[in-house]
Amino acid sequence: RVVxxxxxxxxxxxxxxxxxxxxxxxxxxxxxETQRAAEILGVSRVEFLDYLDSxxxxxxxxxxxxxxxTADTDEAAQRLAKIxxxxxxxxxxxxxxxxxxxxxxxxxxHRVGARAAELADTPVVYESTINRDHIRRVLEQAIASGNSxxxxxxxxxxxxxxxxxxxxxxxxxxxxxxxxxxxxxRKRAAMAAHASQISDQSFFLQMPTDAFRxxxxxxxxxxxxxxxxxxxxxxxxxxxxxx
Length: 243
Prior knowledge:
The protein is of the alpha/beta class. It contains eight helices and six strands.
């Protein structure tokens, strides 16, 4: 049983407003998209913690009252811990300590999630991250094969720095890789369900099937409390029977 908990409703979207119907709020559209993606992925329950979207670092929304970024960590953690208790959750996944790529709400998910696991005695916590060494290898292979169209207008001569601490994590500290290549069609459909966030004409959704499978066919995690080094292929390997 999988439960998805979302901190905000993404009301401060940078784009996608032209998709809204008259009188429709972006927060309403984002909730619908989240519910649709959850259905595609087989999520059993979706809950929102009811904080405001924090925008991006340095924007007025980031420091606004009610934003997730400004929320009291313990208070927010108690909201999440209540759900963890209700579900008798065995595993909690959160973001890594820099939110994958520095997104303020993702960083706050890390802080709040770690504290909620303590409050609810959730035994196993995984930090979702990006294997930047893997991403670099995929891009190098794309360039070697003659593909000059890289995501985000990335220049083939300017690949991600393997030592860039603001993006993902080095492979050396990742503990867990889950092979989801058999499910990438469902994953792509779930991404497409978030139409106000990712255009159907985006580089990612236009990628050839094989390239998408290799780029998005793995999920990477750092399991809290164990030594680094790839050793797990499932986020359920750390579960012990509850008393």
